[in-house]
Structure formats: C-alpha cells, structure tokens
Amino acid sequence: MSCITCNSTTTPTMKDFQSKNIFTWCTNCGNYGIHTALRRALVSKKIPACRTLTCFDIGCNGNGSDKIGGYNFHGLHGRSIPLAVGAEMANRKVTVIAFGGDGGTLGEGIGHLVHAVRGNYNITFVLHNNLNYGLTKGQASPTSKKNMKMNSSPDGATSELLHPAKFVLSLESTFVARSFSGDVKHMTKVFEQALDHKGFSFVEIMQSCPTYNKETPHEWYMDRVYDVESIKGYDSSNREQALKIAQDQEDKVNGEAREGDLGQKIAIGVLYQDKKSVPQIDRQPNRNGSVGTKIKTDAYEETKQYNISKLLEKFR
pLDDT grade, residue 250 (50/70/90)? Predict the structure, then answer.
C-alpha cells in the first residue's frame, strides 16, 4: 500500500515509529511495554507511520504523544476518543488509535466512550488502567479498588470500582480485549487483532504503576493473568460467556460476596468479538449504495480550501 502523501511502498520498520524525544515515565512504568507492543503491532500489520494517527489525552499515557512516529495529537483529559472518531470519519485511509487513562476515560470522558461504542466507529481505543490518577500524584480513580489506600483517600477508597471490560461489554460492543503491561508479546498480539477489527476495538491494558499503586504491582499481575485461549471451548463470539469471564474482578457475583477468590485469576486476550461488525461510516446509506448511489471519496476530499487573508486583514 502506497503512502497517501509520498506514494512510498516501503515496508514499515520499528525505526519508523521511533522518536528522538526522551521518555519521562517512571522507571518500570507499564507505559514502556505498551508503547513497544503498539509499535510492534503496527509494523507486523505493515501499517506505515504516514498512515497512522495516535490520539492521546492528558495523563501519564499522554506523555507518550511525542515518543512515537506518525501523526500525533495530544488532546484534553478524557477527550481523546471524539478527536479520534472525527479523524476516522474524515479519512478512512489512516489507521486511528486513541489512548486514555482509567481516570479520564471513566471519569469525565465516560460519555464519549459510551457513544463511541454505540456508534461502532472504526478506531482502536487503548485504556491504560493503572487504578489511579498517576500524573496528578496518585488519587483514587473510578477503577481503584474499594478500601484501596491512595494519596487522596488515606483511609481507603469508599466507592465500588467500575469494571471496564464488563461495562463496555454491556454496551453491545463489537470488540473487547484485555492484556497486561508486563507481557509485550501478548499485548502485541491483542493490538494486532484490534487493528484488524472493523469497528470500535476496546483494549484494556491492566497496567502496573510502580510509584503510586503499591497494591497491584507487576508481580501481582504476573501471578494471576491467563489467556482465554487456554480455556477449553471458549467462544469469543459469545457475549454472555465474555460477561461471565469479565466478572473475575468482581467483589460480588449475583449479589453474593465472593470468598477469597477476587483477582486470583484474571483473564486476558480477546474476550469478545463480533466478526460481522459494520463500522459507523459503512452504515451510512448514501455511502454504501443502499439508496442508489455510493460516495467513493472521504470527507477530507470533499472539502475546499478558502483564502481568508482578506478577512485576517480586518483584525490587524
């Protein structure tokens, strides 16, 4: 596939997605693994940097916005999804990937997540779930466990946590996956599957935070995660089965408290996928030919440029 700007047909390499900027994450932060896995997946799927747009919000994940090749946009807290959706709707030739933390995404940005799932826009969204607001020094987030002691709640968080996978599965999503920031190989595989999916791909990365989250460090996840592919007969097209699996981080199941098994085993991999998924843009009658015509251009090709120099003169 040739580049939309330079017509290059060169196979992408890891070097294409490198940056000269220095990483500023804490030592052993899970973002290093996530960043590496994404670059590997893009190269594996032969997606060139000039056809890639990554959208970041405010947070530790956003500090990676200038550390990867391709087109990048560092937006507002909890607002990376609508930015990515707009870009994808305007230009389907570009692979669009959005990133967000558990705080911004499931706090002030939760409405954007809901409607992106509902619209089934053709983007990949990566949720960095480290169970806290890391950039602002370790406050409890919507995914912090109840009674978990954080800087803003030294006596422990008092609210029930929000389970991302279970929540998104309940919204009739078409692709829901989980992985762990300490397993680059597994994350790469999940990202590859997400990039192949037609529609909204939700990928939750259970991420270690070595500075502010002492309750679930890297080793805690290493002792608990397992791939759903190891479950005999697991059917990733079965939403009910996926919802059941997603309860592995529940304090209660069907209203009854679980006894000592909370978080003992956590499933990762593609929990659910609808392989017949049709993205939002392809459901539009005037673009798919169902009303007698089919528009073959993208939105960016249908706009005109206007010279506004005379208008600007009025403000001098």
Answer: low
